[in-house]
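Re-run requested by the PI after the first attempt was lost when the workstation crashed. Everything re-entered from the original request form. Ligand of interest: magnesium ion.
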Amino acid sequence: VTRAASAAATGYATLAERARRMRRHIIRMTSHAGSGHPGPSFSPVEILASLYFAELSLDPQHPDWPERDRFVLSKGHAAPALYAALHEAGFFCEETMLTLRQVGSLLQGHPHVKTPGVDATTGSLGLGLSQAVGMALGVTMRHSRSRVYALIGDGECDEGQIWEAALAAAHFRLGNLVVFVDHNGYQFDGPVEEVMRLAPLADKWRAFGWRVEEIDGHDFEQILGFLERARHSADQPSLAVASTVKGYGVSFMAGSQEYHARSLTSEETQRALIELEGPAQAPAKTGDGG
Ligand SMILES: [Mg+2]
C-alpha cells in the first residue's frame, strides 16, 4: 500500500464516519419533528459529506464570508441532510438542530437563507439550479475564486427551468459551477422512468454543453475524483449523474419509497439508530498513571 493510497483510505474512513453521524442526525431530527423526508435525505449523504468535509471552503464562524464557496440544495425537501452537514461542520449546535420544523425555528422544513450556512432558499423544485447559475456568474464578474455547487433531484429534472439553467450555464462558460444529480430513481409519484423518462440522462446534459460523468453517489473515491477533475474545467460547467439509493444506510429503508414523505415510527427510529451506531468504544486504558 502506497503512502498516498493509505492516506486516501484514512480520508474515506473519516468521511464514512461523517456520513454515519449525518444519518443519525437525520433520523433524530425528523423523528423528533414527526414529519419530513428521511428517504430522499439519505440518498445524497455521501455527496454532502464529501462537499462539506473535503471540498467546500467555508468558515462556520463567519457564514457570510464573501469568498466562501456556495452550495445550493435545489431538492430542498432533503433539508435534514443539509442541516446534518451544517451541524457537523459547526454552523449550529445540536439543540438548534433538533428544532427542525418547529414554528419559529431557524431550521424550517425546506432550506431558508436565514439559517446560518444556507445560501439559497429552495424547495419549490426547479429553482435552485438557476440560483446557482446566478451565483456562479456573480462571483465570476467579481473576479472571485469562489466555486458554486448544487445538488438537484432526478425527479426535479422534469422541471423546464432546470433546462433553462442548463443552457445558461454552458452559454456563460461557468467552469466554477459543479452539479450533482441525485439519481435515486424515484420521485414523489413513483419511479422516474415511469413518471417522465430521463434516459439517457448523461447524454442530455452533454448535449447542453456540460462536462458530464456518471458515478456511484455512495462511493467517496468516485465523488472526490469527480470533484478533483471538475477543478480543472476552465470554461465548462461540470455535472455528475450520481447513482444513489433512497434510504441508503439503513436496511429497511434502502430502496423503499415508504419514507419519501413520512418520518419513522418510534419503533423504526430505534431500529434505525441501532443500525447506525458507531464502532464500539475502545476500552479505557488503565495503569498508565492517568
Ligand atoms: Mg429522486
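Saved to the shared folder this time. Residues 3-33 form the longest helix (31 residues).
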